[in-house]
Design a protein that fits this description.
four-stranded antiparallel beta sheet, 16 strands
């Protein structure tokens, strides 16, 4: 039964994981069937999952209420970052060096340090790193220390080492 709407998808050797409105759903490749959906009862910040990124042994799960780090091998949420503000959506997740960047619309860029296992300060408008928290997409640049951020204010190129804007193409209606 494939009744969940799919917002994003990733896979492992044996499973397909989907980001759905019913949680993080896991499908068995061998039986071609739904195995289980993980929800807020399992530790996700919210049941509405918008993105999932596989960096074995961890799935980075973006929800409208925050981000969860999900252990693939033990089916456990072992870390979360949650916001009191509701996100309209989670943009792509990118890993640069030892930091995971997650774009959260109406919140900013959540950042998780993989080495220290700590959430870093979220980049938002108040820090001057990003111009607008209406983030709709992020992606790594060909330069390994830079991140593209797209949203309501256009497109920005951010140097993640110096936390500064390199380039800004403002959105224009003309």
């Amino acid at each position: 039964d494939w009744s969940q709407s799919t917002n994003d998808i990733t896979n492992t050797q044996t499973f397909i994981y989907t980001a759905s409105d019913d949680g993080l759903c896991r499908y068995s490749k061998s039986s071609a069937s739904l195995d289980v959906c993980f929800t807020d009862d399992d530790g996700l910040p919210d049941n509405e999952v918008l993105s999932v990124l596989n960096e074995d042994p961890t799935l980075y799960v973006g929800t409208i209420g925050g981000v969860a780090l999900f252990g693939i091998h033990n089916d456990t949420v072992y870390e979360t970052w949650e916001s009191s503000a509701s996100s309209d959506g989670v943009a792509e997740t990118a890993i640069i060096g030892d930091v995971v960047y997650v774009g959260l619309s109406n919140i900013g860029l959540a950042r998780y340090n993989l080495t220290t296992s700590e959430w870093l300060q979220t980049w938002d408008e108040s820090l001057g790193v990003i111009n607008d928290i209406g983030i709709t997409s992020i992606t790594k640049d060909s330069n390994p220390n830079r991140l593209w951020v797209g949203g309501g204010d256009g497109v920005q190129l951010i140097d993640v080492v110096t936390s500064t804007e390199i380039l800004h193409w403002a959105d224009s209606s003309s």
